[in-house]
What does this fold into?
Amino acid sequence: MFPPSPKFTERNLPSLVGKVYIVTGAASGVGFELAKFLYGAGGTVYVAARSAARCEGAIQKILQEKKSKTKGQSGRLESLVIDLSDLASVKAGVEDFLRRETRLDVLMHNAAVMTPPKGSKDKHVCDSRIDWKYSG
It folds into this structure.
């Protein structure tokens, strides 16, 4: 009835020292947990979220949670403010990242709104919700 315990966990990760990651939606949920794993394995992790407060809050929470669990190998956590619904914000975030780094090993696109309210618009006044119908 219950799923089995996972076979791949944080303990299975090799050293990620020298690797650079961006995790969108890293302020909560799956993105937060992934950022925590990557940081614990020694990676440089850019915690990407819609506001500086959300980024910094996630970073502080990761540091607090990892303080007692880290095996002496920790990476680096950086804040990256990007609102993926606003292309100007994406451009500014990319430029900020490029000023700070010379490489990117993995970009984890995790951020999303699963079900935006009907009729909602993004910052470019596009309909955020498209009703797809399966045509068979």
